[in-house]
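Annex B.
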Amino acid sequence: MSHYESSPGGAAGGAALPSAAKPMLYLVCGKAGSGKSTLARNLADKHESILIDEDDWLARLYRDQIHDLADYVRCTGMLRDVLGDHLVVLLKRGVSVVLDFPANTLAFRQWAKGIFDKAGVAHELHYLEVPDATCKARLRERNASGCHPFTVSEEAFDAITRYFVPPAPEEGFNTFLHRE
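ATP-binding protein: predicted structure tokens.
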């Protein structure tokens, strides 16, 4: 019996498998510098879930190819194409996943909805509502620290923010609002 299969009396050895019982896809939404990555790490720790960090994957796979917003859109699209089916398999096998990808557009949220629908699992969309001035101050601090694989200037923040669409109830997500 594999780790993810259960017997009539429960999981292998009769013990419950915490993450296999109710796998979940956790999503984060918020402007650059709002705290998405911090929240994603906290969710992964709290729920003993797999964390998939977009910035880490993009930096390792496409670091020399991302110079502007168009490059980012192209590279993250390729990454999503590769990860989509893999995420469905993980979720179907009972593994909860936290996606540290910005669920900031209708198109991204529809992609994510396709994943949890195909996997037949629940989801949570965590929306961080943080003032632009706070986000920009955090980005200045992050950029100066050199601890992040990408820097985001105030001009880039403004350009990226033009595409930001807050989640709306009619989208049908289980949304949790975090305000600062």
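Residues 21-179 form a domain with the Rossmann fold fold (CATH 3.40.50.300). The two ends are 47 Å apart (CA to CA). Further annotation is deferred to the next reporting cycle.
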